[in-house]
Specification:
- This protein has 224 residues and is of the alpha+beta class.
- The protein has helices at 11-37, 47-50, 85-88, 115-123, 151-163, 212-220; strands spanning 95-96, 126-132, 141-148, 167-171, 174-183, 186-195, 198-205.
- A 7-stranded antiparallel beta sheet has the order 1-2-3-7-6-5-4, covered by helices on one side.
- A hairpin with a 2-residue loop joins strand 5 and strand 6.
- The longest helix is centred in the N-terminal third of the chain and has 27 residues, at 11-37.
């Protein structure tokens, strides 16, 4: 066999190899850059992650429990039911519960002015009856609250009336407490009557027919 010498690379082939190698290297680098720098698709949160939690609705307020009144306690439905026809006609120019007395800012009496007694009036079931001027506050009127009370509250009321220095005595099957005073030519006072599950709380100024409380008692407890 004849011997062949070392292969000979011509200058043209050498440059071709160099150029080809450079192209391959550039493609590799470009591919790497494409992988590194190509924008990635943004992650999209699912619908559940976009839904804000809805706060639960607050529970409805619990009704205020009214005190349990003894069965058989009279329950007049309106102010017309606590007076005799004669008393309804005895107030002259004063009228019963005109519209202006329903205004929360109206200057009207509540049957008592002691905070402890007012707390029981305000929180218990009651019927409010006011004989006042038809046009607004004046210097004359009578205000009564028929308040339904438990036996325990009845004791609290009568004890408080005595503590306030009122004149208390038994009358018409219940306990009557009264006070009266005069100042600047005005006569005013309070009359309270407690019987069974009812407390009649009355305030008056320069008004009030004779026998007002007796009339209410005889009408509310008629037939007993």
């Amino acid at each position: 066999m004849s011997d062949h010498g070392p292969p000979t690379i011509t200058p043209g082939r050498a440059w071709s190899a160099v150029i080809l190698g450079g192209i391959v290297t550039a493609l590799v680098v470009l591919a790497a850059m494409t992988v590194v720098f190509a924008p990635q698709p943004a992650s999209t949160p699912d619908a559940a992650s976009l839904t804000r939690p809805v706060p639960a609705a607050p529970p409805p307020p619990e009704p205020v429990a009214q005190p349990e009144i003894a069965p058989g306690t009279p329950r007049p439905a309106s102010c017309d039911d606590i007076y005799s026809p004669q008393m309804l006609d005895a107030f002259g120019d004063l009228v019963l519960n005109p519209d202006w007395t329903n205004d929360p800012s109206a200057d009207v009496q509540a049957g008592a002015d002691d905070p402890d007694l007012l707390a029981i009036i305000d929180t218990n079931d009651r019927l409010t009856c006011r004989w006042v001027s038809p046009t607004g506050p004046s210097g004359a009127g009578v205000s009564t609250n028929v308040v339904w009370v438990t036996p325990e509250q009845a004791v609290t009321v009568t004890e408080r009336l005595a503590e306030l220095g009122m004149d208390c005595y038994e009358e018409l099957g219940g306990l009557r407490c009264i006070v009266q005073d005069t100042a600047d030519d005005n006569t005013f006072g309070q009359s309270h009557f407690v019987r069974g599950g009812i407390w009649l709380a009355t305030q008056w100024v320069n008004a009030g027919p004779n026998g007002y409380t007796h009339d209410m008692v005889n009408t509310i407890w008629a037939g007993e």
